[in-house]
């Protein structure tokens, strides 16, 4: 059985595509994100200008006209029907100690702007050094500990601005 994709173009033109029809599309890749497409003896130049894989949305230019394209499959529809949002993630606003330990070093200060995966601090626990990286881009609102502090499980370490 062929998989079906529900496609929306510019939020007002909706249609369904089957996996079989997509696989038989006469398209030739001419460069990165650029394709030559032949459909019903008509030639089209297509370029993917932007894409968001998590939201399954794309900005595509075809013969000098730009389109916003959204593509969903049966799983996306089921997730939406169940009330969940695709690609949604919880924003983390604070870092708490996952276990008792000792703060070995702090790599940030209050008011500092950090990027996702920047090292924030090192916690020694059970004779192991655990580096805590930033879970998101943001600004450090407050630091509740200092180097040398002993911390308990679930104790607030760092808080982000909302």
Automatic annotation (TrEMBL):
Superkingdom field: Bacteria
Organism: Bizionia saleffrena
Name the record gives this protein: Biotin/lipoyl-binding protein
The keyword Iron appears for this protein: no
Keywords recorded for this protein, A-Z: Biotin
One matching Pfam family: Biotin_lipoyl
rRNA-binding among keywords: no
Domain Lipoyl-binding: 83-161
């Amino acid at each position: 059985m062929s998989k079906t994709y529900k496609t929306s173009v510019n939020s007002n033109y909706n249609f369904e595509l089957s996996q079989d029809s997509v696989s038989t599309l006469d398209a030739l890749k001419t460069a990165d994100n650029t394709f030559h497409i032949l459909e019903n003896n008509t030639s089209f130049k297509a370029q993917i200008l932007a894409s968001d894989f998590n939201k399954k949305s794309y900005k595509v230019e075809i013969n000098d006209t730009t389109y916003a394209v959204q593509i969903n499959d049966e799983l996306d529809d089921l997730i939406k029907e169940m009330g969940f949002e695709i690609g949604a993630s919880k924003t983390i606003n604070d870092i708490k100690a996952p276990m008792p330990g000792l703060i070995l070093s702090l790599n940030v200060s209050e008011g500092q702007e950090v990027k996702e995966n920047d090292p924030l601090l090192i916690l020694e626990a059970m004779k192991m050094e655990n580096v805590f990286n930033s879970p998101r881009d943001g600004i450090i609102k407050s630091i509740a500990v200092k180097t040398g502090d002993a911390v308990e499980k679930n104790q607030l370490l760092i808080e982000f601005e909302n």
